[in-house]
Amino acid sequence: MPFAGGIVCGDAHFFRQRAELSLNIPAEASCPVSNLFPVWICLAGFMLLFLTYFLSDKYRIHWLYGVSVFLCCFGLGAGMTEEYLHRTDFPFSDEAAVYQVILLEKPEMKERSVLCHVQLEGKVNDEDLQKSEYGRTFLFYFPRNSATVALKRGDRLWVHTRIAPPVNNGNPDEFDYVRYLTRKAGTGTAYISAGHWRIMGHDASRSLQQIALDYREKVVELYHRLGFQGDNLAVLSALTVGDKENLSEDMRETYSIAGASHVLALSGLHIGLLSTLFLFFFSFLWKRWAAFKPLGFFLVILFLWAFAFLTGLSSSVVRSVIMFSLLAISRLQSEKLLSLNTLAATAFLMLLYNPLWLFDVGFQLSFVAVVSILLIQPKLYSLLSVRRCIPRYVWGLLTVSVAAQIGTAPLVIFYFSRFSTHFLLTNLWVIPMVTLILYSAVLMLVLTPFSFLQSGCALVVDALLSAQNKVLCWIEELPMSSIDRLWIDHWEIMLFYLFLLFLFRSLAIRTARSISFPLCCLLLLITYHTISVSLSSPQRGIAFYNVRGCPAVHCVANSGESWLAYADSVPDTFRLHRALVPYWNRQHLSIPNALPADYSASGLAFHNHIVSYAGRRVCLLHDARWKNKISKHPLQIDYLYISKGYNGRIEELTSLFRIRTVVLDVSLSDYRSDILKNDCYRLAIPCIALKERGAFCIHL
Length: 700
What we know:
Structural class: alpha+beta
Number of strands: 21
Distance between the termini: 46 Å
Strand content: 15-25%
Shape: globular
Number of helices: 22
């Protein structure tokens, strides 16, 4: 726990320093001692540990040993985290340059671009970069065409571009892309225009992970040859080798609403099923020859790592294999097989390897689920005594599902704003089916030398996949299959887990005082949530969002009803909703109504792309409809919202409108934005560029 606390503080300290640098706060304005706080904490811990050694015979100060170890672990976590994050530091420049890079992975095909993970090898004919700055990882976007589609891993390129640090769009409650990319060791991003790159060679050498990814592709190709297609192929690839690239949005939504998304994320469940299969086979041997037991567990661990290799050594699978490897070693003892100490040791060793795994959603859900099963499931299982085999299995599966759901529900709501109500029914179906599919797929791969038997096994696997998907689609269509648009913050999560901890303690120590702690924690949680809801209630206003491809004006009423007026005739509404649903959930807004061409209601009117709401007028300008027009009585416009498609100047509109403020959408090019900003400066009109400022909200 102190090590994890140090990781959180080190992460917060690093991003606070980066925020100060982005705001041009001078280094002397911040406390210089704070830059070395992990070192000072570790030093204090070692000094206390040294003092404890000389005073070890005095029992009254035995607590010094605990404090010293606490400080050492805290400082170690903070120092390691900052060291990992500082690996993404890079001297960004506003000028474009020619860089030599190498493609690390297979390019990802986007709708209009090709995404490549590249490693920087240096500047061409330039020695500005230090040797320590080579090897940084970047995300490069190429325009999608016949040349970029042909790129492959290992290609060495010369590119002419400007590398920029990752930035957020500045929308309220949006996904923090900067923190996400930095924690994934991503240094920056760049867009390479057509004709601004050239292939200079190919590096045929491969890392261990790249070799693993190649084998994963071979397994997926084998599935293709065996006749798997569509959703069945996508689900089988996700279940067995962790390849979710071919999963359709409809299938992802089906699994999410039904509460079965955890089976698509290759992690602890699948590794646990495989370890159970391997242990089952080897248990017959060490029951007969006890000396074979250590070798049997070694072979189980070896097979688990071989499976992780086939999945491309993804971080979630590697974490799960590490956990089950340590658990397999712990089973050599005759004591309790799995305890909180074993789980804590597993988490500590994993975070010692990569402290930034603490912020991974899969890491959090995996460990919270196992802790919940260890603490809650025995209490639930003891409530009912079941003697028969099949009812006992069903009861055990139900109690495990409930325990895991209790522990993971706050995190699922926090990250995904959804709670699946039919999770018991889903788990009763999907866990046995996933077990059958996984074991059948392993048998199908083992039968590769025997093509006839393998084809027959493939038909069985395909039938199992079809049955699983059909039942989940049926569960999705059940009434109240999920509760969506939920919102909680991190303080509510902490209070909820504190309540569970105190509640578990009160069940073990049944005293009036122990019961008062969870009740007080529950009261505090309810009070905080009530205050949070009241403070985030919707207010009447107008909002402009920084979402590329979907310029729109959002009008909000106090009742929670809202309207979206789109400037583009074909707006990218999916991108807009994905970026702003968290903010709308926190504000408890209903799904916004899309305004048609002409609309009129009490307090709101939309005509000729002019919105009139609550005494304000907003003109959405995206074409040449007002060109060569004049008026004797110019219309008062509070906000002139200009997006891509308007190629004129601000002066051309002054005879039609009396403009108070100009808002520039992110869809405008930098060249057009600079022209319009200069026009506003010359005409003394306030100008707001959403690309620079982020979302702009006006409360009325």
